[in-house]
Amino acid sequence: MIGLLRIIGVANVSIWLGGSVFFTLAVGPAFFSEEMLRLLGRPHAGAAAQVVLERYFAMHQVCAGVALLHLLGEGVYLGRKIQRWTLWLLLGLLVCSLVGGHVIQPRLQALHLDMYRPGAVAEEHEAATRSFRLLHGISQLLNLVMAGGVVVYLVRLTKAPTEAPRYRFQ
């Protein structure tokens, strides 16, 4: 059971970090590549990126939830004391993903629609574009913070425990 618990934790953080890096370095930029813009046009490429971004934040939420359950499972099954800083790190990552997915993302979608709304006055378009760029920058910063937090969690998870478990199984 100890091995299974360890595999679940390492698999979860691997998927979490791999998904974050893949989205940040490959998927996100692909939507605004010359080929994609030529194929879909900027408004549709941006709308497609918004759809994928929703799932990206959902992945973060699921992985943070699994990590919290894993931490609890380690505490209960292995008799380890739950490290507060790890708990706070995971809770922080969960909160960041909830804010990104349920606060920032819907606002970005609304601003994107305002930016490309037919018949919009130039001032409305410029205001929506400015707000979108600012919020998008905040979203990118949040993404980097979350990726860094996942790396810190990976290091924590893969380092050898400093205390012996309460129960020894042979």
Structure description:
The structure is a single chain. By secondary structure, the chain is an all-alpha fold. It has one domain. The chain is 83% helix and 0% strand. The chain has five helices and no strands. The protein has helices at 2-30, 34-40, 42-77, 84-115, 122-158. The model has no long low-confidence stretch (mean pLDDT 89).
Give the % helix: over 70%
Approximately what portion of the residues adopt beta-strand conformation? under 5%
User: What structural category characterises the helix and strand content?
Assistant: mainly alpha
The tally of beta strands, per DSSP, is 0
Low-confidence stretches: none
C-alpha Rg (nearest Å) = 20 Å
Net shape? elongated
Total helical elements: 5
For the record, the count of structural domains works out to 1
